[in-house]
Amino acid sequence: MLNEQKKRGWLMACIQGDMSLWLHSMRTGLMLVFILLMNFMLVRSNATMIGIYGYKVHLGETLFTCLNSGFNLIMTSVAFLVMISEIPKRVSYQKYVLIRLSRGKWLLSLIVFCIGIVAFFLLFMTAMCALFSLSYVTPGSGWSDLERLAENADYIYEMQIIPQYIRGLSPFQACFLAWFVLFCFFLTMTLLILSFSLFEMPNLGVVVCVSLLLLNITVLFEYLPGIVLPSNFATLGAIVSMKPEHEFEMLLKVLVGYGIVDALIIALMSFRVKKMDMQF
Amino acid sequence: MHEELKNTFRSKKFWIAFGVAIFTLMGYSAAYWIGSADEWLEYRESALQLSIGGIFFGGFMLLLPFCAALAHSTSQVEEESGSIMQWRTLRSSVAKYVAIKAGASMIGAAIATMSAFILHAIIWNIIALPCNPTTYPNHTIYFDPSCIFYNWYTICYGLPVYLEITVGIGFTASVWAVVALAVAVWIPDKLLTVTIPSFLYYLWNADLIFFFFGIQTPHPATLFNDGLTPQKAVVSIISYLVVLAVSLAIYYAGCKRRCENA
Questions:
Q1: One-character DSSP codes across B179-208
Q2: pLDDT category, B262, cuts 50, 70, 90?
Q3: How many angstroms separate the CA atoms of A158 and A144, rounded?
Q4: What letter would DSSP give residue B71?
Q5: Which residues have C-beta within 8 Å of that of residue B166, sequence separation ≥ 6?
Q6: This prediction's pTM
Q7: Alpha-carbon span A263 to A187, nearest angstrom
Q8: B55-78 in b/e burial notation, b at 16+ Cβ within 10 A?
Q9: Is B211 at the interface with chain A, CB within 8 A?
Q10: CB atoms within 10 A of CB B5
Q11: Which of A52, A69, A89, B260 sits at a 20 to 30 Å CA gap from A223?
Q12: Closest by CA position to B51, among listed B5, B135, B116, B4
């Protein structure tokens, strides 16, 4: 029991320390404000669109719409990358941690911290999205598309709010699935930044990730078929659009792919951490 | 000023900003050119369409404030961290320092972005057919009749359009360079100096002011985008002049504070 507590103690202390440094950073604060404003704009534009059609929607659907598109993926991701660009924060705190812990444990604490901030960030976004949506959603659960379809069979020819393949799941399950895809994407980016940082190139990591993300809008890939970008794997909506009719099969493959990529990055980092000179 | 400008054009960041701007413009035109390799030359887009396509349909609009901030404004952070700013203001004055720094940043940002657009246009005027809708109906661009480009693009292979867009890009970039300076003096962080102007631009683009205050503002890229009317141009120039004045005031206040409390 005591050993268990001890084990958790060092991990929690490390995460608490890293979290405190992260939350007290100027970059984190300013980017959170920006993301919040972006989220507000996204929800308002969704509300305007729903208002034009005169539909009544439930909270689960609006959350799924936002999660499915990655909360305005490009700008949110860039802001998130700026937020995490300093991990691990190069301050003497890291030196003290390394004196008291092994390199392996230090890396483990950083990986758990990365998982924590990604989860915290996405939960914060989801909560804010729910809060901003409260002004225009109607009470109820389930998919409003099905309700409209039951009332009017011709509705199938109109704009559907939720894609058909996901209606087999409950809104909570659908939201969780979309949330998990985003979680995997953001976690991979975070681990990539961390690995670049361990190779003493923190800025290059941000530049690589931002460039890969922005390629989607800077290059006209419609004219260059066969090229797949990271943003094609970032959201549930983007993944399933690559293989219509086989959505869940594609999703499973991508999730396995994320698992493999993350494991490789972690293996590379643990190899590096054992050899590197710690300079903080 | 001469020394400051020399430093601007010798800086690696200025060339990176230029490179990003031209890459973004090429992202549309080169991709289209490769994708339409099987078509006859006269059925492909004209040099004008290819030159402005990266602005209208590509990512140039989004990356303009980033390029503008990167060209010279980040040097403010270096001067603050190295205390050069204090030495320079001691030898002249805060007002002169602000004028030189803002002037150099504006010129640097304008040249980095304008030259990218001009070079890109020259390249496509060599490779593709110059815009001539009378001979090649495929070169017709369906601008709105109220848009100032409606008749302009048929004159002299679209030269007035090229000129207006070049000036529009330069003016917009120079204002965003001053915004970046105002950020840099209060938040001496290079990454935030280039990202905050980009995000402010994006929030303006997303009509944040309308949502919060109900005031309709012109699109931040109005001066070099399609749909430009004389009225929109006037409103946009006034909006940018207000942004410029506010940014300069914030920058001046920041410089003064830094020098007094150095």
A1: HHHHHHHHS--HHHHHHHHHHHHHHHHTTH
A2: low
A3: 13
A4: I
A5: B114, B117, B118
A6: 0.86
A7: 12
A8: bbebbbbbbbbbbbbbbbbbbbbe
A9: yes
A10: 16
A11: A69
A12: B116
Look up the ipTM and state it.
Answer: 0.83
Distance from CA of A219 to the nearest CA of B (A): 4
CA distance A56 to A50: 8
Whether A204 has its CB under 8 Å from any CB of chain B: the answer is no
C-alpha B64/C-alpha B198 separation (Å) is: 8
Q: Which tokens go with A135?
A: 């002004």
The predicted structure's pLDDT at residue B178? 95
Cβ of residue A217 closer than 8 Å to a chain B Cβ: yes
**Residues of chain B neighbouring A215 (CB-CB closer than 8 A):** 27
Cα B124 to chain centroid, rounded: 20
The answer to whether B79 and B73 are in contact (CB under 8 A) is: no
The residues, any chain, with a CB within 8 Å of residue A129's CB and separated by 6 or more, are A39, A42, A43, A62, A63, A66, A71
If you count residue pairs, one on A and one on B, with CB atoms under 8 Å apart, how many are there? Answer: 69
**DSSP-derived secondary structure letter, B217:** -
DSSP H helical ranges for chain A: 2-23, 26-53, 59-69, 73-84, 92-100, 103-133, 144-151, 171-198, 202-218, 236-242, 247-275
Rounded Cα distance, B88 and B94, in Å: 9
Cβ neighbour number for residue A54 with a 10 Å cutoff: 6
- pLDDT at residue B180 tops 90: yes
CB contact under 8 A, A78 and B195: yes
